[in-house]
Each structure stands twice: as C-alpha cells, then as structure tokens.
Amino acid sequence: MNYQFPLISRSKELERFMKDLPSDNEKSILELHDLPGGAKAFLLVARFCYGVKMELTPSNVVPLRCAAEYLQMTEDYGEGNLIIQTENFLNHIFGYWTDTLKALKTCEGVLPLAEELHITSRCIHSLVLKAADPTLAILPLSGPSSVQSPEDSEMWNGISTSLTSKESGEDWWFEDVSSLSLPLYKRFMQGGIARHMKPRRVSGSLVYYAKKNIPSLSSYQNGNLSKSNLSEADQRNLIEETVELLPNEKGITPTKFLLKCLRTAMALYASSSCCSSLEKRIGFQLDEADLEDLLIPNIGYSMETIHDIDCVQRMLDHFMIVDHDDVDSTSNNDIVEEERRIVANCQRLNPMAKVSELMDNYLAEVAPDVNLKLPKFQSLAAVIPDCARTLDDGIYRAIDIFLKSHAWMTESEKEQICRLMNCQKLSLEASTHAAQNERLPLRIVVQVLFFEQLKLRTSVAGWFFASDTLENPTNLSGNLALMRSDGNGIGNNTTHNNPVVAFDHMKDRVSELEKECLSMKQDLEKMMKSKGSWNMLLKKLGCRLIPKTSLPKVSKPCRKSKIAPASVTELEENAVVVT
Fold first, then answer.
1. For the whole model, what pTM was predicted?
2. Which one-letter DSSP state was computed for residue 107?
3. pLDDT > 70: what percent of the chain?
4. What percentage of the chain's residues is helix, strand, coil (to nearest 5)?
C-alpha cells in the first residue's frame, strides 16, 4: 500500500476508491471511466502526486483542472494541491489571447464539467474583452510553463515577461476565432453582440467564418478553392446560425455575400425562416446587387422556369416597401422643409434608378425562357414605377426578347406586354428600332412614330422661336459680317456665346431633323399602302385627326429657317392623336 500513499494523500476520491478495494488481492484493478481527460490527464495527475516534474500548458490545463475537480484534490489533502495550482494557471493565461484560445478549444473534450466550473464562459469572456480592446490581447513569446513537484516552493517558472501586442486592425481576430467549433463561436459572437461590438465587425467575422467553412461561399485562394469537412447538415446549420446572428443594419453585410448565402441555403434546403430573412435583407439593399448574383437557379419541386423569378419578385417587393416607407415619412413635412424634402427625394431616386436598371437587365436575361409566362413577366416589370426610368430602352429590350422567344403570342397579348413601356421615353436609337420591329403590334409602331414626330415638331417650334429672338430687322444685315469677322467669334473658345454662329448651327440641325421627319413619313406611307387608307387605319387604331386650325401657330417658319413651306404643312396635316 505504500506505493498508493502519494495518490490517496492528494485525492479524496482516490482514497475512497482504494478503501473499497479488497485487501486479500495482491493485484487490484481500478478503472476510472468517467475521469475527464482520460488516460493522459490521469498520467499527469499521477506525476503530480509522485512529485515528478510536469508542465502545465494552455492545452492541458483545462483537462487537468477538471480531473482535479473530479478526484477532489482540494487543499484539505495537501497545501498547493492540483486544483489551486491549475486554477491559478488558468487565471494567469486569461491575460493572453492565444493561450486563452487554446484553452477554450480543449473545453469541448471535458464537457459538461468545464461548464460547471465556468471555465468555458471565462475563456469566452476573456476573448471578447480582448477582441473589443486589442491593447489587452498579448501573446507569450516563450514556450509552455514548467510546473515543479508539489514539494517545491514555486509551482511554475512562469511565462516570459517579453510580451507583444496584437495588431490594432479591427479584423485581426477573425482568423483565430474561425478555428472554433460552431457552438463555441456562436457563444463568442453572442458575447461580442451583448457588449455592443460594432455591427460591421460582427458582420465581418460572420462572413469570414462562413466563407471558411462552406465551400460555395468561398473564393479562390492561391488558385485552390477551400474545402470543408462539414457535412451538408452541418453546413445548413451553420448558414441558419450565421443568418440569425447577422446585424439588421442596412449596408453592413455585403449584398453579394447575402445572395450567395441565399443560393446556398436553397441548395441545402435550409429553413423557410432563414431564406425569408435573407430575402428581406437583400431587398433592403437591392440597389447594391449585381445581375449575375440575381440569376438564382430554380431548384424547387415545381421547376417551371430556369431561374427563381418568384424569389427576385419577393426581394423587389421588400425594396419597394422600404422605399415607400421613406417617402411616406417625409410626405407630411411643412412648407418650410420643402427644399430639404426635395433634396432627400433626389437622393432616394438614385437607388430606385439603379434597381430599375437592374430589373430591366434581369428581365432581359430571363425573357428567353420559353416557360416564363406573361403574367409573371408583367408582375415583375410592373413593380417599378414609370418615374424611376429616365429612358425605357431597357424594358423595351426585355419586351423585344420576350416577344422573340414567345412567337405564338396573340396580338392582344403583345399589346398587353407593350403597355409596360412608355413610347415617349424611348431614345432615338430605340425608336428607330421599334419603328422597324415586325414583332411589335402595329398600334405600338404608330405610337412610336407619332411621338417621334411630336418631339420633332416641338424641337422645330423651339428653334423657330429662338430664331425670332436672334433677328433684328434694323441692323441684322449690317452686323452679320462684323460679328462673323469678330475676334470673339468663330476663332475663339467662346463660339457658343456668338448668336450668329449658334443660329447657323441651329439651321443645320433643323435641316437634319427635316430629313429624319421625311424618312419617317415615307416609312409610314409604306405601311399605309399595305394596311389601307389613313381613315381606315386611324379608325382601327382608335386615333383621330387633329384639325389644322387647332394646331399651334408657328410664326414665320419658312422665311426665317429656309425650310420649304410644304414640310411644316405636312407635319400639321399628318399629325394624329392616339386615343
């Protein structure tokens, strides 16, 4: 029994086990199946009890502390027993970021005793404090501490006093904590959030952790795509936990990451609440999204279309709700705040304009899908208000692609989808294309030609008015040569300030517009020959002629602009209004 005395002299539990052993048996076997840390921890405990030199390190201190607690190695069984020594060492390493992180990782192997002794919570609390204040995060430069036998006066030689501070960048701890398991990492992040850690740092760490552990969210690093050892179930759980911890502030989390998370969550069949939360977050900052990221493949059970258009529809609805709330919040301002309200509205138009362009491009991408139904196309396009588009070239392009891919549509359906665009807001290139587009209904083609003609009349009338202001019958003829030969005229950079030169440029532009008008009139006459007379066509399209007497008078059009009288007269006689 002498060889057993060092063990039982330090442990109450071992003393009890030894008393229960039969005394007549020379060889007794004592099995400690529930000992925290297992055989490695017991070997260190035995070395401690027998006074053999041992080393306490951040990697073994937690299992030893739990084993000492399990064996009840208190001060009642010897001064400076293992419980007090491991506890003191733990308190000491809590001042060091790397050592605390190592100790925390070992806590999972000795649960639940590590939780009962509050070792896990103390490690997390220490790490949170250091992440919040980088000046507290110091690292030991030496190796592990050495612990001498209990009989010696000093328990360990101590950690080297040469300390170095962590870098002061806000993301210096992202890589370190990404090595934690998900339960420990979640508790760390919850501790940081509870201590009001900056939302941008919380989001940055969550993005880093998710990208490191989920291959579909990772980017190529050193030419290789990082691989994950997690199962699909673990990845799904990680996505759901990450989304739950993300800050709610707009613009904190990158939209590209959120869209990748959404696509991965759908592929892993994550919970509906997780997907809905991602859609709402993306919708709040949809103006920051890229077209390629919105092309989410449809992986549902009813794969009607190639891309998940319903998902984009929900995100767009969320964006419109937020935008309308912003407008409503400022709609009741007093007149004194009118200028401030106008400035705020201008700022809000920028995201709306971005989203309208994004949706037009998205519709053009999904339009070739023959399974895309007209109501779904209309529903998505109609969400964007007409005022959000400065030009309707984008929506016209999407409509044209849709008509090309759905050649079986009836005339009524074609007219229905063409109502999504405003013919008055087409550029000259788009109007020229539309006027020659055989896929468009005839009614739409005539509307395009009419509005282009109307724009031309307005421009010509404006230039005629400008020519009258430039004319001075008493001295214009005498001053033309002088102004043309003036040194401040054509030869200088101030040419645009010379009224005579501007008048010459205006006449050239009027001549060009006259040619364009004549070309459009000839195209219209060709259609008339194939479709019937003017009256029959106008009656079919629901249009009416405008009497010449009701048109606005144009003062002195022929003499001043040198345009043939028949040109303006033809514009007046051929003008129509679409009813």
1. 0.71
2. G
3. 65
4. 65, 5, 30
